[in-house]
Structure formats: C-alpha cells, structure tokens
C-alpha cells in the first residue's frame, strides 16, 4: 500500500513533538484565554414552566404522552445542568413507557459520570436493543468502557463509531485516546494515518493536529482555538472542547497539574450538554489522583 508524502510529514511532526518539554505548557498556562460561562437558555426555562403546568393539570394524560412530556422535561433539565431533576424525570418517563431509548441513553451517561459503570452498561445495552442504529449509544458505551478501564471494549466501540463516519475528527480522537492506553506508539501512528486519509478543513481536525504535535499548545490557544467559529456555535462551546482536549494532551504528556487546570476551565464554561463538559469532572478527579500518587512515590 502506497504511503502518502503527507503522512511522512505528519510523522516527522509527531516525532519532533515527542522531544518537547513541559515548558510550552507552562507558557500557555500563563496566557490562558478564559471565556465567560454560557448562560442558561431562557427558552428552556420557559418550556419547563409550561411542561410543569401540563403535567400537573392534565392528570388523565395517556401514559405514553406523559412519558414523552417527562422525557422532554428531563432533557431540558439536563441541558441546564440540573442532572438530579433530569434523572428523576427520565426514570419516571420509563415507568410510563419502558421503550424510550433516549431516556436510557441519558441515564447511561449520568451513571458513567457517577462511575456507576455496571448500571451504565445496562442502560446503553438497553438502548441498542431497542434501537440498534441509535446514533450515540455506541459512542457513550465506549466512553463508559474507557473510564471503566476496559480498554479492549472501548477500542471496539470507538472503532465501530469511527468507521460509521471516519471524517468526523472527534471519532478519530476518542479512538486514539483508547488506543494510546493499549499501545502508545501504534496509536500515534494510527492517528497520523487517519489524519492524512480522512482529514479535512473542519475545525475539529485542528485538535487532531494538536494531538500529533503539528500545532503547539501556545499557537493553538493564540489562534486555532477560535478559528472558523460557526454562526450557531458559542465561544464557550468552542473553548469547552479546547480546554478538555488540551487537558487530555497534558495527561498524555504526564503533566497532571496543567491537565487539572484545563479540566477546571472546561467545567467553568457551563456547556452542560457537551460530552467534554460532562466528563471534565471525572478527568479532573483522575488527574488529582495521579498527582497524589506521584507525590507519594516521589
């Protein structure tokens, strides 16, 4: 199979990046681009108020209709970061209609965040039993396996998710994050190959370049992080992703102190619906544990 010239360039960039020290990270942290947290959407709050009236007033609603209303309210609570209220509604919705695949999917995500991995697997398997082609259940089950440290399962799910749409840079990144836990050298080579074969001008591929070392951390923060912001995309959303993946990069570099800063910043954006926000808390906790372990061993 012919190897493209571009692949060689990327591999050279990767190899040069491996020689970098933590100095660039220190410089980047002194020049952080911090955004205003995303405000709660007033439309969601108004819709919740209307749903509250309907649920309280119409006591004779058919069970399936009540389930849909509770599910909708739960998803709005989730979008506002009110996860406990969201879980209550999702569970009640399933009492009225046990075939609501999306409610299981949300609950699986919440269980992953709580590190209740066994329950999360049950939820995602339930989703796939009801809707084998559900667009997110494979991804979410893979994320659950990743945090459960069942890397073989994570790689399997992330690979299936990637193969369904290989031009999606986020699918490439999550597959890489799992593969690097199994074989770091092979994972980085695979990442470079996928960048050459499937990469395009979509902003998310800049994150792949960051992971490869084709863009250094400071350069990324100075320009690439806010490049090509879409009309329907907020700065907080973009920086939530940026902070999270910079945190993951610093973890891979062994700089858990810098990683902790980035995960805190990701959480500070209040972009509650983003995967990167949801798991920044878990990553922060694990970075702190790594720091404590290093301090004890040191």
TrEMBL record:
Assembly notes: Homodimer.
Bilayer-crossing regions: none
Protein name (database record): Lipoprotein NlpI
Protein role: May be involved in cell division.
TPR repeats: from-to residues: 67-100, 101-134
Compartments, as annotated in UniProt: Cell membrane
The entry's keywords: Cell membrane, Lipoprotein, Membrane, Palmitate, Repeat, Signal, TPR repeat
SUPFAM superfamilies cross-referenced by the UniProt entry: TPR-like
UniProt GO BP: receptor-mediated virion attachment to host cell
Pfam families named among the record's database cross-references: TPR_8
Entry-linked NCBIfam families: PRK11189.1
Signal sequence bounds: 1-19
CC terms in the record's Gene Ontology section: cell outer membrane; plasma membrane
The UniProt record lists the keyword ATP-binding: no
């Amino acid at each position: 199979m012919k190897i493209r010239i571009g692949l060689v360039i990327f591999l050279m960039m990767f190899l040069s990046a491996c020689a970098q020290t933590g100095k660039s990270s220190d410089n980047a942290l002194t020049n952080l681009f911090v955004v205003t947290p995303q405000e709660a959407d007033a439309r969601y709050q108004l819709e919740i108020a209307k749903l509250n009236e309907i649920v309280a007033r119409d006591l004779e609603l058919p069970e399936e209709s009540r389930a849909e209303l509770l599910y909708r309210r739960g998803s709005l609570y989730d979008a506002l970061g009110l996860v406990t209220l969201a879980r209550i509604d999702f569970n009640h919705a399933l009492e009225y209609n046990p075939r609501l695949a999306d409610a299981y999917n949300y609950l699986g995500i919440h269980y992953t965040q709580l590190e209740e991995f066994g329950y999360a697997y049950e939820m995602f398997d339930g989703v796939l039993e009801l809707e084998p082609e559900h667009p997110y259940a494979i991804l979410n089950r893979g994320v659950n396996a990743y945090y459960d440290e069942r890397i073989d399962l994570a790689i399997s799910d992330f690979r299936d998710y990637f193969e369904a749409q290989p031009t999606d840079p986020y699918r490439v990144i999550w597959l890489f994050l799992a593969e690097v836990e199994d074989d770091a050298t092979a994972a980085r080579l695979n990442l470079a190959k996928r960048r050459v074969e499937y990469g395009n001008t979509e902003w998310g591929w800049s994150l792949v370049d960051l992971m490869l070392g084709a863009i250094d951390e400071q350069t990324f923060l100075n320009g690439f992080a806010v490049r090509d912001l879409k009309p329907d995309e907020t700065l907080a959303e973009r920086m939530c992703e940026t902070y999270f993946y910079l945190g993951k990069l610093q973890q891979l570099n062994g700089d858990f102190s810098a990683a902790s800063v980035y995960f805190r910043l990701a959480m500070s954006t209040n972009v509650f619906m983003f995967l990167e926000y949801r798991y920044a808390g878990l990553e922060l906790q694990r970075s702190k544990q790594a720091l404590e372990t290093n301090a004890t061993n040191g």
